[in-house]
């Protein structure tokens, strides 16, 4: 869509085939737009040919499945069109290689000029200074790469096309080498390009054999194709020193050899062992674990296998230039090899080898030989019909792996320290804090921790903190405290900065512990914890890395435990100016503190209102539509306020104090009601303290406000599901969104919780006339017309017109006759008696007069009402009526 808009703006006539257009005769921006579109088309075709891992489907949902199917069909249709036009796109790009001139692409400035006065910009956009300049070399480089990719893809069905791909890729390589780092607008994946070049070198039958044989990939491909496996082994031996072949490629060649051997070619068994031996020694030198395939092939060791293995080891290390680490790895491999052999002759073959003598000291060699001579005889491995996996000798890398596994699972600080000491004793080059991707430390802490020079201390501090944070996140506060305490004790010795960091994290942990434990039952936190929270907010230690979440939790903690006096009067002014959560907490505390007060208290409410309005405001931008008209775009997350709306919502969901939640709910409800197109207002407590208008109404994102109101009231009801004012807000939201059954359910629930399930009168400030009228409308739209007539009686002025109209309805979905017990208004009863008597015809009288029972019942009821006390009768009817409606609604909801 965006590329089509660019073509329209660049004055490319719609419907014109790009292949018929002479690019050299077009303005630079127009030619560039055509190039961009066709490059995108080629890249999309190439990318669609790559295999994609299918997403595991979840439970079938009809709407979601339909949407996914529609998206899939739309994508397939676009690909179908692009593939049909692929030949034209290739011709356009081939023609672009002949341009040999700089082009220009539109920028925001030129697009803004076009949006304002298209006529004035025609000349400027065609001039040499309009837009962003793209050099001819950069254009040629990118076009050659895209053409090479599409030619390479087409080569799967037409091998001759690989020559074209090779030509384009090598030209791309030349241009990248020519432009170098000076290229600003040409970004090509050079690793992928190198892979393309190597693949083309292997696949094309070039007359220049020397260029083909220059890469190990082409040599291996040729050996596998011709069956020259001895040369294949030589290539692997040479690469053990050069290390140019990736481990995945080495393993894929070995798998292919295994497959050929399993098909009946017994001569390949020896080749498989030799290639596997090369791979194993390569793995040892690079610190990887030994593959199980080597252990399986070495179950029956022989003199020939030992000779070849020693040759591989000798040719894989240059003792003069090798590092001490490489020498230790090779020595450990040879030593473990000896320990795994039963035949002493084979052991002495290794121990007497020149490489073994140079790598191991005299004392180490003598100790090893003595161990081999003194050990008790065991069954030779080659005589076992089935070899147990556990009989394979454990290498140093296996031991390290086992210790790393224990390190990942352990949450005991002392055990973690012991494991790290053992690991660092085995190898000093590994960074053990990286072995698990679950160990995450905030970036503000990571930079300080990774600056520790001692490797063991750095690993220990990082792992203790990461594990402590993880335990805190899963609410395992006991282990989290142990880990943090151990880390605090460690860093106190050398880093005052990290000591303060750990004290801050332990404060946050103590807040979490209290809120999840004693705080749930309403027990106030100890004064010591409140003092530490205040101390954190007032802390002025320079250069201490701080996490914003700690300040956020501290402010929420003080609000939840009604420390309004401190937040209002004692928080330092610089802290309010620099920390948005402290400022928000201060405004909330001040508003809650003065809520019952006079009109002067509205000043703090106004300040809070302005802050929230600014957070919910959006920045505007203009965008040109397909029809050429300029439209308005709203950015949902604006930086105009002191924080983002999502951050505000996250902070509010940490609050539990009812008055604070009621205040913030009231503010958002008022903000929701301010919009001009509102049809149904939402009611809330204290709504009169907020301003009644906003100067810049268009800047407020009212859709986001509506979503926020819904999320807040849902959260509030999880804190207290029996707060009738919150239930009324939830009901009003459902009413405003035309969900009448749910709205009626929450209106009735609000009445039930504040009247002991209708055993007392519902307070008039809960069931106002507005609430009753909305309940009437809900019942009417749900076709519960008898209930409408009953609810009309509860209005301060009985709505006879609505009640009479409801009683006339024939298509009623409620119980009708059973609700007549709950009508006490004489006028409604008289009207009901009248319409029931008129409904009786001669035919119904002749058939047994079933309708007379209704009339007789209603007349008796009318007589009873006239002779009885009115108020007790109304209360009785209210309780019975609402009980029945409520039960019916609950049943329908479930």
TrEMBL record:
GO terms for biological process: snRNA 3'-end processing. Pfam families: TPR_INTS8. Residues 397-836 form the INTS8 TPR repeats domain. Keywords: Chromosome, Nucleus. GO terms for cellular component: chromosome; integrator complex. Belongs to the Integrator subunit 8 family. This is Integrator complex subunit 8. The lineage of its organism: Eukaryota, Metazoa, Chordata, Craniata, Vertebrata.
């Amino acid at each position: 869509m965006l590329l089509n808009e660019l073509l329209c703006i660049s004055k490319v006539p719609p419907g014109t085939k790009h292949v018929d257009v002479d690019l050299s005769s077009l303005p630079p921006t127009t030619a560039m737009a055509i190039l961009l579109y066709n490059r995108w088309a080629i890249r999309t075709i190439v990318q669609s040919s790559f295999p994609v891992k299918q997403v595991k489907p979840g439970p079938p949902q009809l709407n979601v499945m339909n949407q996914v199917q529609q998206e899939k069909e739309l994508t397939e249709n676009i690909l179908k069109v692009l593939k049909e036009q692929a030949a034209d796109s290739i011709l356009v790009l081939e023609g672009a290689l002949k341009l040999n001139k700089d082009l220009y692409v539109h920028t925001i400035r030129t697009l803004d000029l076009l949006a304002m006065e298209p006529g004035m910009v025609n000349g400027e956009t065609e001039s040499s200074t309009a837009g962003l300049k793209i050099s001819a070399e950069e254009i040629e480089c990118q076009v050659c790469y895209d053409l090479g990719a599409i030619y390479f893809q087409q080569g799967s069905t037409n091998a001759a096309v690989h020559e074209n791909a090779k030509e384009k890729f090598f030209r791309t390589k030349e241009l990248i080498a020519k432009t170098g780092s000076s290229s600003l607008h040409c970004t090509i994946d050079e690793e992928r390009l190198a892979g393309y070049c190597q693949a083309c070198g292997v696949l094309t039958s070039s007359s220049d054999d020397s260029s083909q044989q220059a890469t190990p990939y082409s040599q291996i491909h040729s050996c596998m194709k011709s069956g020259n496996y001895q040369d294949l082994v030589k290539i692997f031996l040479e690469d053990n020193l050069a290390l140019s072949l990736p481990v995945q490629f080495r393993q894929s060649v070995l798998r292919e050899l295994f497959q050929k051997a399993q098909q009946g070619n017994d001569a390949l068994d020896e080749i498989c062992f030799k290639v596997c031996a090369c791979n194993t020694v390569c793995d040892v030198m690079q610190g990887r674990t030994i593959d199980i395939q080597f252990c399986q092939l070495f179950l029956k060791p022989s003199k020939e296998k030992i000779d070849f293995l020693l040759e591989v080891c000798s040719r894989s290390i240059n003792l003069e230039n090798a590092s001490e680490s490489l020498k230790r790895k090779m020595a450990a491999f040879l030593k473990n090899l000896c320990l795994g052999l039963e035949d002493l002759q084979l052991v002495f073959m290794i121990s007497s080898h020149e490489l073994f003598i140079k790598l191991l000291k005299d004392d180490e060699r003598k100790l090893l030989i003595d161990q081999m001579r003194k050990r008790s005889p065991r069954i030779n491995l080659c005589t076992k019909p089935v070899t147990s996996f556990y009989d394979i000798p454990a290498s140093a890398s296996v031991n390290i792996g086992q210790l790393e596994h224990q390190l990942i699972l352990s949450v005991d600080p002392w055990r973690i320290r012991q494991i790290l000491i053992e690991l660092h004793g085995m190898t000093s080059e590994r960074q053990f804090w990286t072995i698990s991707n679950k160990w995450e430390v905030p970036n503000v802490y990571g930079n300080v921790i990774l600056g520790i020079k001692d490797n063991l201390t750095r690993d220990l501090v990082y792992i203790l903190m990461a594990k402590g944070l993880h335990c805190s996140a899963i609410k395992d506060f006991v282990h989290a405290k142990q880990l943090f305490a151990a880390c605090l004790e460690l860093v106190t010795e050398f880093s005052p900065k990290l000591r303060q960091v750990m004290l801050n994290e332990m404060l946050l942990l103590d807040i979490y512990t209290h809120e999840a434990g004693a705080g749930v039952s309403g027990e106030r936190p100890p004064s010591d914890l409140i003092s530490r929270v205040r101390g954190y907010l007032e802390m002025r230690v320079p250069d201490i890395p701080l996490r914003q979440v700690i300040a956020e939790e501290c402010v929420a903690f003080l609000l939840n435990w009604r420390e309004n006096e401190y937040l209002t009067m004692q928080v330092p002014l610089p802290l309010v100016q620099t920390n948005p959560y402290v400022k928000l907490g201060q405004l909330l505390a001040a508003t809650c503190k003065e809520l019952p007060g006079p009109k002067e208290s509205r000043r703090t409410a106004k300040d809070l209102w302005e802050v929230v309005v600014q957070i919910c405001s959006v920045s505007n931008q203009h965008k040109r539509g397909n029809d050429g008209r300029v439209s308005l775009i709203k950015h949902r997350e604006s930086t105009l306020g002191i924080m983002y709306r999502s951050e505000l919502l996250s902070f509010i969901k940490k609050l539990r104090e009812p008055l604070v939640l009621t205040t913030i709910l009231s503010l958002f409800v008022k903000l929701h009601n301010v919009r001009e197109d509102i049809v149904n207002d939402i009611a809330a407590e204290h709504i009169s303290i907020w301003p009644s208008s906003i100067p810049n109404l268009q800047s407020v994102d009212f859709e986001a406000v509506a979503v926020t109101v819904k999320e807040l009231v849902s959260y509030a009801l999880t804190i207290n599901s029996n707060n009738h004012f919150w239930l009324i807000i939830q009901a009003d939201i459902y009413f405003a969104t035309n969900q009448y059954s749910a709205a009626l359910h929450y209106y009735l629930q609000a009445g039930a919780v504040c009247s002991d399930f209708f055993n007392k009168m519902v307070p008039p400030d809960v069931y106002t006339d507005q609430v009753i009228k909305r309940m009437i409308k809900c019942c009417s739209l749900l076709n519960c017309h008898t209930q409408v007539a009953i609810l009309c009686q509860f209005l301060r002025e009985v709505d006879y017109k609505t009640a009479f109209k409801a009683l006339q309805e024939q298509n009623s979905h409620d119980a009708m006759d059973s609700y007549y017990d709950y009508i006490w208004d004489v006028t409604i009863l008289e009207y009901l008696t009248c319409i029931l008597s008129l409904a009786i015809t001669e035919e119904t009288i002749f058939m047994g007069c079933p309708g007379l029972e209704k009339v007789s019942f209603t007349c008796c009821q009318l007589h009873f009402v006239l002779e009885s006390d009115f108020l007790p009768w109304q209360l009785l009817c209210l309780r019975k009526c609402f009980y029945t409606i409520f039960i019916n609604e609950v049943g329908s909801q479930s």
